[in-house]
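wait is this the right file?? whatever heres the structure
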């Protein structure tokens, strides 16, 4: 009898003709998460199995961060289809557990069996009641649910359920460019986009000396937390100082944020094109700040032709914070280091900007040359989740 970790697909099972593509990527992502462990993965259209001699707790801890998994179970493969042998093996497994109520659920992948699933469950349940004292059947809320799958060449038994993240495997739906700031929202937007199968790269705008090295390291720390779900993460760091200073010196202050965001969108779209990313992603939420009114979004969005995805557009701030806490980005996001989006903020930013005025004001600065230079000199970092990160351990 072999102990394995059983993976259930959930939403992936709806893919039908394309399911093999999704399963191959899921297998690849699981193996990446376990790359320094002794583990292998096999699968069929119904189930995936992790075979390992490593401690299961460590394997499950890592695999819980892989999108595309609905549920995990510690399972046992019995190398027999003989019902009498199966009963004895199940009994030996249950004798290691402490419980008083149970229920048996059976599935017949092997349709050659004459006995129905219900009859198999009743027969196994009766055998367990006869051979273990003090047990009772509870069909509504049993302490132990005994799952038995009768397969063509063997039998699979499993008990406890471990919830997975769901969604699609990262990399199955292409690539997107995340506009990553040091705030609460953009890391959550990146997380939710990865959950839909999109592999992300990220772009961060720094403005030294107006922004600090601590602000940059804070974003690197957030990128590392996102890399946990993305296998690894390419971070593009763009020096935004000259553009931001030109905007501040030459453009009416109520339009500072609008024009700044238009420049960021242009740069992000160019880098996305160079990196074969099909979408831009950001953490904008309707009405949260002046640049996130519908009129502002429209005025800013017109600068690019690439689709812009806003996973948090209709989220309540408290809901966003809850997700940030669950993915361990919240404490880092609230560290008090300012980034480009929080310096030079005017007292009264325009909330309904005119596109015509945006065009007029942008002609006051050589923005095309500034954008070209910012892209030409930008820094590229490869971030992995496994790197040590102690910059903020005393502040968290």
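ok assuming it is, sequence goes like this
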């Amino acid at each position: 009898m072999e102990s394995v970790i059983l993976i259930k697909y959930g939403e992936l099972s709806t893919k039908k003709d394309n399911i093999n593509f999704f399963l191959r990527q899921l297998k690849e992502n699981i193996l990446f998460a376990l790359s320094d462990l002794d583990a292998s993965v096999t699968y069929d259209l119904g189930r995936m199995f992790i075979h390992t001699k490593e401690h299961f707790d460590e394997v499950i801890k890592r695999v819980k961060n892989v999108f595309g998994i609905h549920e995990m179970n510690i399972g046992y493969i019995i190398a027999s289809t003989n019902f009498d042998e199966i009963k004895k093996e199940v009994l030996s497994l249950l004798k290691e557990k402490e419980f008083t109520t149970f229920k048996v659920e059976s599935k017949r992948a092997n349709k050659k069996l004459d006995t129905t699933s219900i009859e198999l469950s009743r027969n196994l349940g009766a055998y367990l009641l006869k051979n273990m004292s003090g047990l009772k059947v509870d069909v509504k809320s049993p302490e132990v649910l005994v799952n038995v799958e009768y397969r063509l060449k063997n039998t699979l038994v499993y008990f406890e359920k471990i919830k997975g993240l769901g969604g699609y495997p990262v990399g199955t739906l292409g690539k997107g460019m995340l506009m990553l700031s040091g705030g609460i929202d953009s890391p959550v937007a990146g997380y939710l986009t990865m959950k839909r199968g999109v592999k992300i790269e990220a772009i961060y705008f720094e403005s030294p000396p107006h922004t600090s090295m601590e602000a940059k390291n804070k974003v690197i720390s957030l990128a590392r937390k996102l890399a946990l779900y993305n296998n690894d993460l390419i971070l593009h760091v763009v020096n935004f100082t000259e553009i931001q200073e030109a905007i501040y010196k030459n453009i009416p202050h109520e339009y500072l944020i609008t024009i700044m965001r238009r420049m960021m969108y242009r740069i992000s779209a160019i880098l996305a094109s160079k990196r074969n990313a099909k979408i831009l992603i950001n953490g904008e939420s309707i009405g949260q700040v002046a640049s996130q009114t519908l009129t502002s979004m429209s005025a800013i969005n017109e600068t690019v032709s690439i689709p812009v995805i806003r996973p948090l557009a209709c989220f309540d701030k408290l809901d966003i914070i809850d997700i940030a806490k669950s993915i361990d980005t919240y404490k880092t996001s609230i560290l008090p280091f300012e980034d480009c989006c929080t310096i030079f903020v005017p007292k009264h930013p325009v909330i309904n900007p005119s596109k015509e005025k945006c065009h007029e004001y942008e002609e006051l600065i050589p923005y095309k040359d500034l954008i070209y230079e910012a892209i030409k000199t930008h820094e590229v970092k490869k971030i992995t989740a496994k790197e040590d990160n102690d910059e903020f351990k005393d502040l968290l």
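The longest helix spans residues 256-274. so i think its the right one actually
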